[in-house]
Amino acid sequence: MFLPPAILTVLSYFQPAFSKPTFNKAALLVVGTLLARGRRTVAMALR
After folding, report:
1. Where do the domains of the chain lie?
2. Is residue 3 exposed (0-12), middle (13-18) or buried (19+ Cβ within 10 Å)?
3. What is the pTM of this model?
């Protein structure tokens, strides 16, 4: 998954709180939430 350096900088503060696989999924959900239109639910973030 490619993420811009600015987003990686912000997300890197939270990386120690997660295992590597969980962090990758959490980062995907955060980016999906930022890009979601309308209601920001987990299902919408995954789309």
Report:
1. 18-46
2. middle
3. 0.67
